[in-house]
Amino acid sequence: MKNLIPVILPFLLLTLTQFAMEKRDNLEESFRWSDFDSQSQKAEYILKKIKKWQKQDHVDGSKKLRVVYFYPKDRKPLKNHLERWDRIMNDIQNFFSIEMERLGYGKSQLSLEKENGKLKLHEVIGKGNDDGTYSYKSGGKILGEVSQALKLKGINAKEETLLIVCGLSQTDGKKVKIYSPYYGMGANQNKGICFVADSDWLNIDGLRPDESKTTLQVKEHRDYEPFSLARFNTTYIGGTIHELGHGLSLPHNLATRVESEKGTALMGAGNYTYRQEWRKEGKGSFLTNAHAIRLIAHPLFSGTSKQAAQQSKLSIHSMNIEYINDSLHLKGRLSSNIPTVAMIAYNDGENK
Predict the structure, then answer these.
(1) Fold for domain 66-300?
(2) pTM
């Protein structure tokens, strides 16, 4: 059995998910995951610690996801962009809420910035025209222009989680050409950046069965290829929540064997299966427990930004890893200036 450990360890990423709360004199609370028989018991333990903390101090709910709508100066926002993105973000918020509750973390909700009951979109007009100035590789350039525009509103982009929706697509009937940045970058508990694309055809209703049997011709990184309306919306709305996951500091991950029965992990290939269950084309996408734990400790879900910007200091005093009965057992002692609520080990090689 010992010979198996070197094979498994390259796939092992040890991450401490920390919850911001007041530093106490005794930070050496101990817990053993092996004492819990089920995932629901672990969730109950984590949620109990968080609720106990929330009773001790005021919860500051000021941290919100900032959604930016960017477009070149010689163009206008795509049609019905405000209504469409309000519905898209409400659906994404609902997805996270249902998944967090399913996993036992209560009705934890992604905090969206609202204005008059609707999603607040910070519209930013680019300095360049839609003449090739902006492309998939223009993330840094667009971020710079967005940061300058937000600064005029008193918003420091370096301290925010930003979802930048780019109106960088062209539609000619049923032909769609997309040339927007589409990725997440530089995220932690205090900040995050992600870019996604908008299109005239992007709409929550497009995720449902399409009686018209509409077929789009879509060009992004390759030549034009056929997309059903449902596949198009699953790919690009699913892509939005997937890239937002990166903006919330979630890495790519796979499901465990047990979890995979629910469908496809959101941060695996879940961007290509989002809401397929609405059309009875598959089980759809779901949130893994490992990522739910990370989110419950994120300011956009926890309801507070307290200590979010504080540099964490972790000391590992001892760590032992054993392979027993087809399972990895990690045991050790650590201390941190920000109390620890859980430990996550990624072993994504198991499903490869």
Answers:
(1) Collagenase (Catalytic Domain) (3.40.390)
(2) 0.88
